[in-house]
Design goal:
By secondary structure, the chain is mainly α. It is 67% helix and 3% strand.
Length: 913
């Protein structure tokens, strides 16, 4: 059958019967008017449209074919006759891609299904109608879309018979069809059948491979295309660049850069901007910046690429400089620019600045979108600003962002981290499309708050809804149980993970180790680390940091040194988090020299690194040195936070630096905009109280804008014990008995004061009060590590096996100490007994026993390190100074508050403790 002619060739031209000359057609708009919607009754129904169609077929010379056919299609679509519209399209118009795209858009806008267009073609094709190459080309697109494999192959056969298969556009459509429906191998076959493929086919072959994640093949085809001296399309270059970015193929990116330069495409923003991104994603920031600087015409997208990279890497000052440069060229930042700054500041710990940026972008007329709100909610979550989080929730709801799964998950996370689990579950329950992250967040939230039954119920619900728990789900359970002190149960969950077909990875083991460390079960952390290695799981830097925190909590210096060596051997030492954990471990284990050495070796110190170093000096009572580090931190351009000032004020209180303490306390708001919290007031009360300024401490407590907690009143009571002030002590104790009714330390401190004043009736009254309230004395203990073995000395329970030898040595020590002027401080004993008995009780203090045992068992000249779980008493403090003098030994004692370094009869605290 011959090719179907357009409608205006169906009939011969009309002739005048008298003159036999062709009749001149009327103006082209005569029938268009009748097809318009200007009030004519001709096209008021589908029937009238079909009548008009009939007239157009009978009198084809009386109308403009293209314009009228378009109008006819529109009227059929208007009345919902999609099949007739498609039929007219196939047989009534000269097809090209512009007309095709216009038809498709109009068809979809009237709610028509493109499947109908496909079916109409199949009907016409089945009746033997023959079409031109353009129609076959667009129908092949339909076959690809509808995955109609056999029709596509049938069309291929028709094309071969008619010789259309050599057409570049047809072959490109065939490659696309075979690549999507039959696989890349068939598409490659179509491509290689051409002896000298045109650039269109090369571009199609490259694109198909890249879309199928055959990145290496796609890039190799691009290289061969260059060798054929054919020019790639801009879109192809961009896709190849993206593929190189995914593969990390920097050399290939450089080659493409050369290609771009040779063909003069560097001025094309659609190429230059992805080129910048690829360099930046591969860590070549200088090359990315060089491309950026070489661009004559930049747009906002160019700046966004650079700002995004700088912000993600933490070069925030550079990001802001580009932001201001963008504005100076009369370009306006868009929402992408602001989102880059928001996410960059959050990622690098500048959470308060995220809120500042939010205010600023709103001031410039930008409303946060879903991406903005994700960063904002994460910052609010970390800051613990629950009320602000609720305001953000309201904004999300008003703007319809709650339907966004990422925003919804961020909201759940925000409420979970602020311990508002009821609100978290309400958001979670309202989410229509919950992803695995939302489920995991909620399960973890319940676990971290000890609500294990709710977590397990949610886990069952998760499985019932067809969502399979993944390794993250199990890791959340492991972490929650371990953090709550259920290390064995957490280990059982970890082992059970294997039975579910999941393999616990380094994250799972690290969660177990970290949870045990946070729960104070450092020994379990170390045991699980050994088991982790036995099972062939390689630790990462986070694992090492958790282990170091466990060692810091137990002051296990030798074990900490071993982990330090492990870090060096395995390349973790360059990690800033490991470095910070090492600073913390060495400072809490009494090795200030190693603390300082590690700190100086860290190249890119974070705020946490500076804070740890300041706190390290603080616990040793080296206030001047702590202040020096703070000054150095400011010169380095690092802004302090609330933790910085806690460390700084702790250094002042442990060194008796009253003026400096007031200076830094007052400047928190005025110079840094940081409001004082309870821990800052506690430091000041402690500082003033220890120095004897009890009236000022009392006034500060009653003038502070926050309600005093147990730490505030405890600091005052401790100061009253030093200065024997019963009036303030009784007031502080009265508040403490309400706030901490089961803390025996508060009762004992007040008993000591009463016993010093010989108020034994009050001592008996307090003992009766403790008995009535069932308050038990806190078990005091001290321990010392000798040759990898820990020896514990407790005020209760079994005595040490070498007690006889220890007391014999201690009696000799006390005798020598008394010759040098040592006088036992019997005021430390609150029992009503004679002085001789009180002196015997002082000898049984656990820190004295541990120090003496260390002197017996350790090598001469080796420092003796003792850890104590309660605050050292004044008699033991005095005795330790004399022991260091008599034995010429360094003693390092860490109590519940700070370190005491005794040497040559003096203590590092200068008796200000």
């Amino acid at each position: 059958m011959e090719k179907l002619a357009p409608l205006h060739h169906f009939h011969p031209p009309l002739q005048n019967p008298l003159t036999h000359k062709p009749i001149k057609p009327p103006p082209s708009n005569i029938f268009l008017d009748s097809l318009s919607s200007d009030g004519h009754n001709v096209t008021t129904s589908l029937t009238s449209v079909k009548m008009m169609h009939t007239q157009m077929i009978k009198l084809p010379q009386m109308w403009n074919p293209d314009a009228a056919t378009k109008k006819l299609i529109s009227r059929y679509l208007e009345f919902g006759d999609f099949q007739s519209a498609a039929m007219v399209f196939y047989v009534g118009l000269p097809r090209n891609y512009l007309i095709w795209n216009s038809f498709v858009e109009e068809f979809k806008s009237t709610a028509g299904s493109l499947h109908i267009v496909h079916e109409v073609f199949k009907e016409l094709h089945g009746k033997g109608l023959v079409f031109d190459s353009e129609v076959y080309s667009v129908v092949l697109k339909f076959c690809t879309r509808e995955m109609d494999l056999w029709l596509g192959m049938g069309i291929h056969g028709c094309l071969i018979k008619r010789g259309f298969d050599l057409d570049a556009y047809i072959r490109s459509a065939l490659m696309n069809f075979y690549g999507r429906c039959w696989g890349l191998e068939k598409a490659h076959q179509v491509f290689h059948e051409m002896q000298n493929p045109e650039s269109l086919l090369w571009n199609q072959a490259i694109t198909l491979n890249l879309l199928s994640d055959e990145l290496q093949t796609g890039v190799e085809l691009f290289r061969k295309m260059q060798l054929s001296f054919l020019k790639a399309e801009t879109a192809t270059i961009v896709k190849v660049l993206q593929a190189c970015g995914k593969m990390g193929a920097l050399n290939a990116v450089k080659q493409i850069h050369g290609y771009v330069f040779r063909f003069g495409l560097e001025s094309d923003l659609s190429v230059s901007n992805p080129l910048i991104s690829m360099y930046l994603k591969n860590g070549k920031h200088e090359l990315g910046r060089r491309v950026f600087d070489s661009m004559d015409n930049r747009n906002t997208s160019s700046y966004n690429s650079m700002i995004s990279s700088y912000a993600a890497l933490g070069f925030l000052n550079d990001a802001w400089n580009l932001f201001y440069e963008l504005k100076s060229y009369d370009m306006k930042p868009d929402i992408v620019t602001w989102n880059c700054l928001l996410s960059g500041h959050f990622l690098h710990g500048y959470k308060e600045e995220v809120l500042d940026i939010l205010q600023r972008m709103q001031g410039e007329g930008f409303k946060p979108n879903q991406i903005s709100m994700t960063s904002i909610l994460q910052a609010i979550s970390e800051l613990g600003f629950l009320n602000l989080g609720k305001e953000a929730h309201g904004y999300v709801f008003r703007n319809g962002f709650d339907c966004d799964v990422y925003v919804g998950t961020s909201l759940v996370d925000m409420y979970v981290k602020n311990h508002s689990l009821t609100s978290a579950y309400a958001v979670f329950d309202s989410m229509k499309n919950k992803n695995i992250f939302a489920w995991n967040c909620m399960v973890s939230g319940y676990c971290f708050n000890g609500m294990f039954e709710d977590a397990l119920k949610l886990l069952n619900q998760m499985e019932n809804e067809g969502i399979k728990p993944d390794l993250v789900t199990r890791t959340g359970l492991i972490s929650g149980y371990a953090m709550r002190g259920y290390g064995k149960e957490a280990m059982t969950i970890l082992q059970g993970t294997k039975r579910l077909g999941l393999t616990p990875n380094v994250v799972s083991w690290t969660a177990l180790i970290s949870g045990c460390s946070q729960a104070g079960n450092g020994i379990d952390s170390l045991k699980f680390f050994v088991q982790m290695q036995q099972e062939g799981v390689t630790p990462n830097s986070a694992t090492i940091a958790c282990l170091l925190r466990a060692c810091a909590g137990l002051s296990l210096l030798q074990k900490g040194k071993e982990i330090h060596c492990f870090s060096i051997r395995n390349g973790f030492i360059e990690d800033v988090f490991v470095g910070t954990a090492l600073i913390d471990m060495y400072s809490k284990s009494g090795s200030l020299k190693n603390t300082h050495n590690v700190f100086r070796k860290i190249q890119n110190k974070t705020l946490a690194s500076w804070n740890c170093m300041i706190m390290g000096f603080a616990i040793f009572g080296l206030g001047k040195e702590a202040i020096s580090v703070f000054d150095e931190m400011q010169k380095a351009g690092v802004s302090p936070d609330a933790i910085t000032f806690t460390a700084l004020l702790s250094a002042c209180k442990n060194s008796g630096l009253i003026d400096e303490g007031w200076k830094y306390f007052d400047c928190m708001i005025t110079d840094y905009g940081i409001y004082q919290q309870l821990e800052h007031y506690c430091c000041m009360v402690d500082l003033l109280g220890r120095a004897g300024y009890l009236d000022e401490a009392w006034d500060l407590i009653h003038s502070m804008p926050l309600k005093p907690d147990a730490t505030i009143w405890g600091a005052l009571l401790g100061s009253c014990r030093i200065h024997k002030n019963l009036e303030f002590a009784e007031s502080a104790a009265k508040n403490l008995f309400k706030l901490e009714p089961n803390n025996s330390a508060n009762y004992i401190l007040l008993m000591n004061l009463y016993s010093i004043s010989n108020r034994w009736e009050d001592v008996d009254r307090l003992q009766d009060l403790m008995s009535t309230a069932r308050v038990k004395n806190r078990q005091g203990w001290s321990w010392i590590q000798i040759n990898q073995r820990v020896h514990v000395f407790s005020s209760y329970g079994k005595p040490h096996p070498d007690s006889g030898e220890i007391y014999f040595e201690m009696y000799q020590l006390v005798s020598e100490m008394k010759k040098l002027g040592y006088v036992p401080d019997i005021d430390c004993v609150y029992q009503n007994m004679d002085e001789a008995e009180k002196e015997k009780i002082l000898l049984s203090h656990t820190e004295k026993l541990a120090i003496t045992y260390g002197l017996i068992k350790m090598k001469a000249g080796e420092p003796v390190r003792v850890i104590k779980n309660t605050r050292i008493c004044s008699d033991c403090h005095t005795a330790a100074k004399y022991i260091s003098l008599v034995k010429s030994r360094e003693l390092l004692l860490r109590d519940s508050v700070r370190f005491h370094h005794f040497r040559e009869g003096k203590c590092s605290c200068n008796d200000f403790w």
